[in-house]
Amino acid sequence: MTYTITSILNNSALTAVDTNGSEYVLIGRGISFGKTIDETVDETKIERQFGNANEESKKNYHLLKLIEDIPEEYFELANVIIRYATKKLNIQLNTSAYINMADHINNSIERYYDDIQLNFSLLDEVRAFYPKEYKVAEWIVDFLNAQIDIDLSEDEIGFIAMHLINAGGDDFQQVSQVKKVLELTRLISKQVLELLPDTDVGSLDYSRFLTHLKYFGIRYFGKEQSKRDEVEILLKTDKSVEIDDIINKIEHLLVEYYNKSLDQHEKSYLKLHLNRIIY
């Protein structure tokens, strides 16, 4: 496909039309360097393609504005970051991840120089449920700090990890949904640790409990609390009364925050995991 340049955005981005007259945003290192309008694009330098602008004019208008507002060097950093994340996470990040990452880098650095600190309150939950994304985000923050000679805070790891989770298309892929599930997990786990202060948070059983909470949260917010027949779990333990009391308090908390109760199936599996934690 042959592309003819219609406008130069920066040395690494331009708009061009193909032989059918459809307009695209094309991005690649040095793709615009030394070029002028009406010249042919060097297709070997195309790394990212966005468009068709004729079909998605509103979306591409915002894309063009983003590209114009973001310093060129941040696109280079985003390119390195996306390649690294793709390799380490063994996933194909969606096309918007590149622009979103460059935009996030720009905003993060602007906040840093303006001395504006944003707190990421779900750092522990992201570290527990998405360890691979967390480790990659940790590398990204170290990389940015070294390349730009700044000192982004640990909170930035959480924000970048959320970008990676969303871009990778997890089983509940929207960022807002991920945050809701992580907040619910924190709410329940905090309640459990207050009621069971001797819990070994480093144990395998507690780790399994947190994983259960993640998938419970997906079902809870996804309106998929089990429609299966009730599962009855009989525990031969003198802690049954204590466990039932904890579950009742958890349900009261969920109704208070989300106005939604637990079904019997979810209560049964919570009982199973709580029993393992206690013993």
UniProtKB/TrEMBL annotation:
<dbReference type="GO" id="GO:0003723">
    <property type="term" value="F:RNA binding"/>
</dbReference>
<feature type="domain" description="PRD">
    <location>
        <begin position="69"/>
        <end position="174"/>
    </location>
</feature>
<keyword id="KW-0677">Repeat</keyword>
<dbReference type="GO" id="GO:0006355">
    <property type="term" value="P:regulation of DNA-templated transcription"/>
</dbReference>
<protein>
    <recommendedName>
        <fullName>PRD domain-containing protein</fullName>
    </recommendedName>
</protein>
<dbReference type="InterPro" id="IPR036650">
    <property type="entry name" value="CAT_RNA-bd_dom_sf"/>
</dbReference>
<dbReference type="Pfam" id="PF03123">
    <property type="entry name" value="CAT_RBD"/>
</dbReference>
<dbReference type="InterPro" id="IPR004341">
    <property type="entry name" value="CAT_RNA-bd_dom"/>
</dbReference>
<dbReference type="InterPro" id="IPR050661">
    <property type="entry name" value="BglG_antiterminators"/>
</dbReference>
<dbReference type="InterPro" id="IPR036634">
    <property type="entry name" value="PRD_sf"/>
</dbReference>
<dbReference type="InterPro" id="IPR011608">
    <property type="entry name" value="PRD"/>
</dbReference>
<dbReference type="Pfam" id="PF00874">
    <property type="entry name" value="PRD"/>
</dbReference>
<feature type="domain" description="PRD">
    <location>
        <begin position="176"/>
        <end position="279"/>
    </location>
</feature>
